[in-house]
Amino acid sequence: MRSSSTRIIHQNLVDLDMDGLDVKLISLSDVNRDPTDLEAVVARNEGRALGLSAAYSPFGGLRLLAIADATTVVIVDFESDISGSDRHVSPPNDPAAGPFDYLRDLVLQRSTGYVYSFDMAPLALSLWQSHGLRICRSVDMQCAGSATSRAPLNTIKFAVGDTTRVFEDNIVRTFNDHIFRCVPSDPVNNQTTTPLAQRAWVTHYISQLGSMEGRFAEVPPINMTKFSDTVCSQSSMIIFLTAPFFFVTAASVFGEEFNRCLSARRAKAT
Question: 219 or 255, which is more confident?
């Protein structure tokens, strides 16, 4: 168990004149004791977008989830990458609440506003596989981007167009760093979670671009609450055994929603 920590980082993915980002690393136990930091980000973005990104253990389980708006990134440490008897997450202050209720109600199943992520399908399945959590009102970034590539770099370049310079090498490195190996002993001064924070932030940034509004409106949201436990479990195992970050494998899980996305992308490419 550890208390939450805050540090300032400066994003280096897109050439913007902006202040640093507040990055808060908070254990799930601490969210349960005091959800103030998470509630603050969600409350000021009621009805508006939040950016998400994930970091995984070397074994493929979901360990960290970053939630971002324009100025703040809250990173929730699940304290384990697999749900089960080996977990030691403190219960919430509210005795009627479950250990994931704050995260579920405030972010994953928020009543207004959408959440966005690159490679949303694998993230949605990992939330279920690792922690039994379902996400809804969630949008895959690449479905609104380039019709010929799902590479994050291409999606970002497509979104910003010629109006803003992007730092290609930084973007490629940041999106190739999904593995989280251990909790840093000094989170305030350790850069381990910087790529995760930057991914969540740039997701939020792109979701707010006026030029992308119409394209995102055409993307069918992922709603995991529609699927039974059996479907979620079987689909998650397929993802886990083949490629945790591979989009095409996940497409079969979401049926009509992803078929619509793929059809729209093919139409744009022709």
Answer: 219
pTM: 0.83
Residue ranges per structural domain of the chain:
5-269
Is the pLDDT at 87 greater than 60, yes or no? no
- pLDDT of 261 reads 55
- How many Å apart are CA 46 and CA 240, to the nearest integer? 33
3-state secondary structure of 240: helix
Cα separation, 71 vs 86, in Å, equals: 35
* Architecture category of domain 5-269 in CATH: 2-Layer Sandwich (3.30)
Bigger pLDDT: 37 vs 250: 37
Sheet arrangement for strand 115-117: 5-9, 21-27, 72-77, 62-68, 50-56, 115-117, 138-140
At 234, which amino acid appears? Q
Strand duo 62-68 + 138-140: pairing: unpaired
Rounded to whole angstroms, the Cα distance separating 244 from 222 reads 17
Mean local confidence (pLDDT), 129-155:
92
